[in-house]
Every structure is written in C-alpha cells, then in structure tokens.
Amino acid sequence: xxxxxxxxxxxLPLIWTALTVGCGGExxxxxxxxxxxxxxxxxLTIMGECFGKEQGESFVTIGGVRPTxxxxxxxxxxxxxxxxxxxxxxxxxxxHKQNKQSNPVLFPMLGSIPKLPESQTxxxxxxxRINPASxxxxxxxxxxxxxxGSARNGSAVLFSWIAERLPSVPAEVSPxxxxxxxxxxxxxxxxxxVRVCDGAASGVVQxxxxxxxxxxxxxxxGKPGVKIIRDKRTYSISYSVDVRAEHAAPPNIMYLWRPIPxxxxxxxxxxxxxxxxxxxxxxxxxxxxxxxxxxxxxxxRRLSVSYLVDVYGAETQVQPNLVRQYADSPVFRAWTKSxxxxxxxxxxxxxxxxxxxxxxxxxxxxxxxxxRNFLKDFTVTADVNGASISQSLQEKQADPYTAAMLxxxxxxxxxxxxxxxxxxxxxxxxTARAHYWAEFWIDNFGWIPxxxxxxxxxxxxTFKPEDxxxxxxxxxxxxxxxxxxxxxxxxxxxxxxxxxAGQKRNYSLQNIWEEASGGIDAYSSHWSDxxxxxxxxx
Length: 538
Hints:
Blueprint: E1 2-6, E2 29-34, E3 43-49, E4 59-62, E5 72-75, E6 79-83, E7 90-97, E8 100-101, E9 105-108, E10 126-131, E11 134-135, E12 140-146, E13 156-161, E14 178-180, E15 183-187, E16 191-195, E17 200-209, E18 212-220, E19 225-259, E20 267-275, E21 281-284, E22 287-293, E23 300-318, H1 330-335, H2 347-357, H3 363-377, E24 379-380, H4 389-395, E25 397-398, H5 400-413, E26 418-425, E27 430-442, E28 446-450, H6 452-455, H7 469-472, E29 476-477, E30 481-486, E31 499-501, E32 514-527, E33 530-537
Parallel strand pairs: 11-18, 24-25
Antiparallel strand pairs: 1-32, 2-3, 3-6, 4-7, 5-6, 7-8, 7-9, 10-12, 12-16, 13-14, 13-17, 15-16, 17-18, 19-22, 19-23, 19-32, 19-33, 20-23, 21-22, 23-29, 26-27, 26-30, 27-28, 27-33, 31-32
Helix pairs in contact: 2-5
C-alpha cells in the first residue's frame, strides 16, 4: 500500500522579542517533570532550560493537546507550571518556543493518585489478604499488604491462566501458566484494586515488582460455563515499513506507529526476534513508536521487525440459564457505546438488532440470535468495494471487515458489550491475509469469540476453515487467527501541528500509523504484509 502525501508548505513568521527569548536562539530542553504521573486538573511542573523568560507566544503540548492560556500558572526560563488538560491515558510533553520544539518526555495519566508516600525501604512485597478471596471474571478485588510501591511503575498482578498444559510435561519443568491483569483501578504501597481478567483460573494471584514477588491463593467462581485454551501454535512473523521523503528539508520529524501483536487470553508470550531500529516508545496502546528526524529529499528509511507469537485455540461452553448481566459494569459501559467504527446508534442498526433478537433478554442468546440471522441474511465476499457499514446492512453484502464491525454494532445496539478484532489468518508460511472478527462479553465468564465471515462460509485463499464452520465460529476460535488489534485504538497526535495519516482496512484498527511535522512537504510510505516465516506446533 503506497501513499504520496502532498503537503502545502507553511512558513510562519518568527516573533523576536526581548520578553520571549532565553538562551539566545537555542531550542528549549526539558530536563525533568514533576509529578511523573498525574490526573486531569493537577498542576504539572516542567523543569529545563531555554523556555524563555516569559511565555509570550510559546506554549506546551501534552499528548497533542494544547492547554488553554488560563491553565498556565508560572513561566520562566527554567520552569513552567501548567494545569494538566484531558488528553487520554498517556502522551508526550513538548515545549514550543519560536517555532522550535523541545525534546519529548513521555507522561502517563493515572485514574487516581496514591495518597501514601513512596516507601524508602527496599523490602520485598508481601500480600497479606485478598478481599474477597474468591470472585468471578470481571469483578473487582482488593489486594492488601506491604511493599507494593506507591505507583505501578512496571509492576504487575498475575492470575493463574486457564491454558491447558501438555500432560507429558512435568509440573516442575512447566510451572502453572500465568496471565497479567488488564483492569488496574488503584495502586498504593499497601493496596491494589484490580479486576479479575478474562482467562483467569483458580490458583494463585501473584504480584511481581522490582523489589520481588509475592503470591496468595485465589478462587475464580460464578462462571456460567467453561472456556478452554489449548492447542498452542507458535508463529515466526516479520513485517516492515519503507518511507521515502519526496520533498523535505530539516528540521522535521516523522513518527511511525508500528502495530505489535496483542496479548490476550488466547495469545501470549510474544518474543521479539529482531528489530532494525530502537523504538522511541516500546509499547503504547498496542504500537511501537519510532521517530525519524531531519529527513532530506530523497532519503529512504526501512524499519523491519520479527516476532515469535504463541497463539492458542479457544473453545467455550456456556450454560445460558446461569448467565447474568450487570449494566453498571465497566465493560458494559465501555463496549456498548457507539463509535465511528461501530455505529451502534444508527437507526437502521437498532431496528435490525431489535428484529434479530425479538423478545429474547438473555445476552448470550441475543448474541447467538444476531449471529444466526446474520448468516441467514448476508452474503460475505472478499471485497465490497469499501462499502460503509450502513451500505452493507442495506445491501446484505459484506466482506470480513464490514461483517465484524456490523456484528459488533448489532450486539452493542442490543445491549451486549462487543469488540472488533483485527489481525491476520495464518494458513502456513508466506504472506498472511488481513482479517477481522469479533468477541462479545458475558459477565462472570469473559470474552467469547465470533467470526461472522468464516461462519457465513467465506473461504480466503489457501485457508481452510474448520468443519461445520457455521456452528464452530460462534464461541470457538482456531489457532490460526493472529491478533494485532484487540478492540479499537485511538492514538493522539504527538505534535498538535503534525499531519497524521492512517491505513484503512489493514491488520490493525489503530487510527494513526504515520505523523509528519516540520519541513516534510511530501513523502511516500509502504507498509508490508505480514510474512509468516515459520509455524511450530507442540
């Protein structure tokens, strides 16, 4: 896929005043920020040099967002104090002065700030209590004890994992597998609040910190059925991006957001085999961020990477009479909302969802009714010429992309949390085909996979779907679906004045893939397909 981006060159007048100049004409430089983590509305202190004696026309951006003028509390040549705007979960801080930009500093957000001070001791963490000692998937638990650290800062909570182990491998050689929690809600020196993650099993909860580890027994209860993760297959994959600066002059910056394989209950333990360049940010919301600086006309850059990724098959067996739904749960609130990719508030989608589910109130049976009616009404082909979700609904024609987005939209319109998934189908070695499918959520159980396209009988080149595909691809998933995007991902621009570009219907659902700023007037880019170099089965 090649894009040539013509960009009008804008020349901004430089403002030279005695009030805003510090350090001559040097660029501003950030040395430290305080605090390292914060919340919206809290004051942030940026320390450094060459900011300018007064603010004048200078400004700060945080995660691509420029605070209002009233947000600035203090501005001097070596210190800025500003109230933090609402910019998302994490972003980069820049100081902009006279068309010059400082070095970036990564700034994560916290849902809440721990009130206890950082412990000065170096003792290992110790879990003294888990409250409650048993809970269902999706429910919140409190881990209490000592030595946790006042903020997460790379620490993790791990649950026993439901993946099956080979019976031929002794337990002492292969210890019980663990899966990291995804729903962190609070973290302090003595307490951690976290949600029981999809894929968790009864066994232990383990806390891993730079100081050491601690574990305690924990039981997962209340499941309205069984999920089985097994049949591991390991893939060796590689992919690359090539960038050519057609018309460019320094100073400039090109950011590349390279998708990385996701970590889910059925896809863990990815290992980087090679990376041609050091990433600027290793992993932010499912992408590695690279930074190319001062490109000149005719310059070319290639970034390439290879991974080993473990992919498991998943099977589910649900007892509908035991299913319960909690409309106030975080998953329900987050994944029943309408979005640009999943327009569940569209009138035609609401009407179709209502017709498909009829008088059914059980969320699992509603998801099944939507799936069966979709298979009955729709024809799925390789391409519907970029048709929108509404066009696909009207014409009863879909491709894998529109099938997945439409299924999610119908589920959300029916009050069922659902997420779209993007990745590739691995039929063997060679080029892997981009593909899309979905999962819906059942409280106390977790995410349940669905592939509407394969279920409807769509057969990609060289890929052989499972037997009885219509029945199999509701509630089950083979080990040949490799995930890059687990749900929708919306990145903020690094530079508020940058020019962002995306990739439509590729193997990741992220909104930004490239961002150019400064003197880049035109460039071309080519993102390669995913190449499967090897397939290994246990």
